Amino acid sequence: MVAMTQEAPRPHLESFKVACSSCNLRELCLPVGLSNDSLDRLDNMVATRRNVSRGDTLFRAGDGFQSLFAVRTGFFKTSVSSEDGRDQVTGFQMAGELLGLDGIGTDSHTCDAIALEDSQVCVIPYSQLEDLSREFSELQRQFHRIMSREIVRDHGVMLLLGSMRAEERLAAFLLNLTQRLQARGFSASALVLRMTREEIGSYLGLKLETVSRTFSKFQDEGILEVKQRQIRILDQDKLHNLVNGATC
Amino acid sequence: MVAMTQEAPRPHLESFKVACSSCNLRELCLPVGLSNDSLDRLDNMVATRRNVSRGDTLFRAGDGFQSLFAVRTGFFKTSVSSEDGRDQVTGFQMAGELLGLDGIGTDSHTCDAIALEDSQVCVIPYSQLEDLSREFSELQRQFHRIMSREIVRDHGVMLLLGSMRAEERLAAFLLNLTQRLQARGFSASALVLRMTREEIGSYLGLKLETVSRTFSKFQDEGILEVKQRQIRILDQDKLHNLVNGATC
DNA sequence: CGCGAGCTTGATGCCGATCAATGCATGTGG
DNA sequence: CCACATGCATTGATCGGCATCAAGCTCGCG
């Protein structure tokens, strides 16, 4: 796949149906490693898609849980909030990533999922997924992997929030984003942020002003070129050094 | 079950075998909600136990993943570390809680699990758990619930690390601990910490001095009685107010 | 008894929060 | 098409919470 910069959001029609087996995300999404047989069954299960406009919520904390959602196109954030109103962005999800795993434990969602651009998700009815993954061990295994990796990802965020300084947090965030974009065929050095400074700050445990200042600092140091939400990475090594050899 | 304060750690013999079906943790652990039939099969699967002395590691980041572990007695911490040596405690696990879920995603563990007191764990061979949970949907469901709840718990920690101040973090930590101890029949107001100030600090994203100062502050304010690791909660309401109505 | 790990407490400094003003891009209605 | 509103981003000045550095203290244990 040729590297390209991110496209502008496009509206998607419900009727424009794409089977998992022919979806260009099948190597990133739930179908990874499935045989043709189980892939066919998955195709039948994932029968409906849902369009979510920019700013709309896919689900909200407290909503009943029935389905998982796989991002087909677009971009989401998830956030939890405390009783006194503070909220924390817990993740950003792009094409091929799963939303809704939080709902399994209590049969109701515990976070909000909001589209940051016009998006389309595949609806995966959870009870059917349970049934199917009892039948196909590959599917079971892949599903467990996805949940486990989500736990590992969360641990990484905890490390970031618990022990990194502002510059390191932002560097780690940018590297993580570009890595995931690259896996989807986008450029490793140019990206368009789909979220505000405030949302980045919430995710990283920083205030929006600090995020903005840190972007400016990175620009002054020749690490980035920052034009609003257009980011170009000029010196990836320096970014890496910030995250790791942070003692220097 | 009568409320009691926590007992001192005791050594456990490998041979002292307890079946899941007659384990006093079955209402907190993997067997929750299982029928007799599947419970019997689980008993066969969880054939071995393992003693882990205080300070020893149950598994380490990078170790190959084969089994999950259920804490039978004792107390553990898990921690991840970044390449430059900083590490972050990601959780504390007590009786009935599962360890090792992080290993499923990549077939190797991504964190260290260390016993904070002499402990015993039940070894749950993962491939057998997969097989069995394809057979028994209740087991499958319970396992998925446990993973999902771990994700939700992690989100809660992210909220704590991202947006709470030191006092709120420590209050939330204490309330969470007592709640879990209470579910195991211990007192809701008296507890013995099994971890150092430094480990608490690592978990909460604070330095040990800050943890210590905050304990002292709570004591001055009549919220706690603190004698080294012996904690008595004198005013639970004030603790709750710290976590929630944090604006005051 | 004396050692050492862990805990407490104090003095000081820094990073990021807060408050505030301005700039910039997009969109809308007159 | 301009004037204005609005949402988001940038930048500066100041403040405060927690980290850092440093010194004793406590308690369990060889």
How would you describe this protein?
- Two copies of one chain form a homodimer.
- Chain A has 248 residues and is α+β, with helices and mostly antiparallel strands.
- The first copy, chain A, folds into two domains: 12-144, Jelly Rolls, CATH 2.60.120; 164-247, Arc Repressor Mutant, subunit A (Orthogonal Bundle), CATH 1.10.10.
- In chain A, 38% of the residues lie in helices and 21% in strands.
- Chain A has seven helices and eleven strands.
- The first copy, chain A, has helices at residues 36-45, 126-135, 137-163, 166-183, 197-204, 208-220, 236-243; strands at residues 49-52, 57-59, 67-73, 75-81, 87-94, 98-99, 112-115, 119-125, 190-192, 224-227, 230-233.
- The first copy, chain A, has a four-stranded antiparallel beta sheet. Chain A has a four-stranded antiparallel beta sheet with strand order 2-7-4-5. In chain A, strands 9-11-10 form a three-stranded antiparallel beta sheet.
- In chain A, helix 2 packs across helix 3, helix 4 (166-183) packs across helix 7 and helix 5 crosses helix 6.
- The longest helix of chain A has 27 residues, at 137-163.
- The first copy, chain A, is globular and about 55 Å long.
- The termini of chain A are far apart.
- Residues 1-5 and 7-13 of chain A have low confidence and may be disordered.
- Chains A and B meet through strand 5, helix 2, helix 3 and helix 5 of A and strand 5, helix 2, helix 3 and helix 5 of B.
- Chain A binds a DNA duplex (30 and 30 nucleotides) through residues 165-166, 196-198, 206-213, 215-216, 228-229.
